[in-house]
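Re: that chain you flagged

S.,

Sorry for the slow reply, it's been a week of failed gels. I finally had a moment to sit down with the sequence you sent. For the record, here it is as I used it:
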Amino acid sequence: MRNTNIMFVGGGGREDSMAWKARQNSEVGEIFITPGNAGTKQYGKNVSIAVTDVEKLADFAEENKVDLTIVGQEDALAAGIVNLFRARGLRIFGPTREAAKIETSKAFFHEVMARAGVPTAHSQVFTDHLSALAWMRIHKAPVVVKADGLAAGKGAVICKTVQEAERAIASIMIMKAHGDAGKTIVIEEFLEGQELSVHTLCTPSEFYVFPVAQDHKPALEGDKGEMTGGMGTFSPVPWVTAEMMHEIRERIVRPTVEEMKKSSVPFEGLMYHGLMMTSTGPKVLEINARFGDTEAQTFMRKLKTDFVDLINSCVDDKLDPLKVDWNPGFAATIVLASGGYPGKYAKGVPIYDIEDALNVPGVMVFHAGTTYGLDSGLETSGGRVLNISATGRTLTDALRIAYQAADCIKFEGKFYRRDIGRKSLSVALE
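Prediction finished late last night. Pasting the structure tokens below so you have them in one place:
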């Protein structure tokens, strides 16, 4: 019997961690990562096909007898990769283009939340910058100005004053900071509290909610600086109780899943609610249609159930939530970023001493923006470069180990947040 061949679509830390986890299954044969990075080469073959070139990806899957494709990157979902693969009889994990609009369009997201009665920020949608400016001048700040489309996690601007909001509107709609993603914008009420990442496996007949994680989106310590795709994550979150999880499941997740079914765009794959735990309860900030990047790395360290078996059970609509098991303790992931990220940053910067980090007990280093230069060896190729993932008996242990390893790695311009988990540890001690 031939072993299972798998293809991961994407090239970040998310795909590196999933390929690492998949390689632990003895029944997995070839692993292909498109396009992959320097780290994914350890577990399979990188394939130079753009994630949006879905026809070539489908051709490759057929030619190489790929049994299961797992989509990590949102651009591929927006390009309709799931629609095409299914039409050609190829097994794939992820939502259709229509269902993925829950991520690819902030306006659609708010429509679904309103119909489902799911609590979220009050919002207004604008397709004209003059209308947005006029509305902003008669309303109060703080607000969050968001590009409607995909902007690699960088399309949201927290504006503490009306003047900041006006600059954000101009940047997105006039200066086209995020290209066509900013043709339409959403201006939202600013919500205060602690953020949570809630990941849910969805099949036609079942859903399963992962233990919650906490991400840190702003680039700088103290939640300052521009928004990013994530600077660090940990799971579980020590102050989240069973009662809170029940409320999240029944007040947030279930109504979202059921509303999409009723609206004839059923969601199959991984749904990721970004929540704000406010003084009046959980409210949804956004929904993504795939694993969060840093969250995936943390979950791969915690997941005891075989990852490939779990995803296969979802594709086959045989998911049994009672059979999903997790390792005890905590996992934390710290992002090492290029100087200047999420703005302009240098590429081709040599990276040193990864082996020293890997020698720290409990540590894995997952690659994101890395490649091999012709002469210099490992070097940077992106804004988020490497991810230090550590496990520990307590959250404090996991973070301490991760930071010890983070200090080992060297490349010019390297920076990372040194306050990952600090707010949650403070809450847990109260």
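What I noticed first: The longest strand covers residues 269-278.

Talk soon,
D.
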